[in-house]
Amino acid sequence: MKIKQTITIKEAEKSDAQALAMLCGELGYPASATDIERRLEVLCSDPEHVIFAAKDDAILGWIHVTVIRSLESDPFAEIRGLVVTERHRGGGIGSQLVEAAEKWANGKKCGRIRVRTNIVRAEAHAFYRRMGYVSKKTQDVFDKLISSKT
Q1: How far is 93 from 5, CA to CA, in rounded Å?
Q2: Cβ distance 142 to 129 under 8 Å?
Q3: Has residue 108 been placed in a domain?
Q4: Hey, how many other C-beta atoms are within 10 angstroms of the C-beta on 109?
Q5: Are 44 and 37 in contact (CB under 8 A)?
Q6: Which letter does DSSP use for residue 56 in this model?
Q7: CA distance 66 to 114
Q8: Which tens digits make up the pLDDT trace of 43-101?
Q9: Alpha helices of 12-134 — where are they, by DSSP H?
Q10: Distance CA 89, CA 85 (A)
Q11: Residue 66 is part of which domain span?
Q12: Distance CA 65, CA 116 (A)
């Protein structure tokens, strides 16, 4: 049995880029530190996005949450990504990151928070259910490349 670990939750910053990039790879989305620095610069300058990092001596996980605005519904928050380093999973770090995201969303006056997770991530589904999230629908995701990366 893993012991719940006490860590610090802080907003991610440029100096965290290498650790965040490594965790992106663990999530299945490889990225370089340069990629992460570029993305952080844009996201961290937008008050409707936040990336929290879980830290002890090193970055152990991160969560990205944003406000979603659309014509058909009132604003809500969406968890865009969450990962805890494999070695530290099951110790409460993911729960602490989700709680930080929920608190942030509440401060943004979002009445609900949503997360989308790949159908093959059974452990993630169980985690979110334990956190009180309810599956609302299944959908397909369609992608189309429309221009080259700049």
Answers
A1: 7
A2: no
A3: yes
A4: 10
A5: no
A6: S
A7: 10
A8: 999 999 999 999 998 999 999 999 999 999 999 999 999 999 999 999 999 999 999 99
A9: 17-27, 33-44, 93-107, 122-130
A10: 6
A11: 8-130
A12: 12
CATH of the domain at 118: 3.40.630.30
Query: How many domains does the chain divide into?
Result: 1
In a domain, 1, yes or no: no
Question: Do the Cβ atoms of 103 and 65 come closer than 8 Å?
Answer: no
Backbone angles phi, psi at 84, to 5 degrees: -125, 135
In a domain, residue 142? The reply is: no
For 68, 115, 117, the CA distances from 137, given in Å and listed in that order, are: 18, 11, 11
Question: Is 145 domain-assigned?
Answer: no
pTM: 0.90
| 5 token code pair | 């670990």
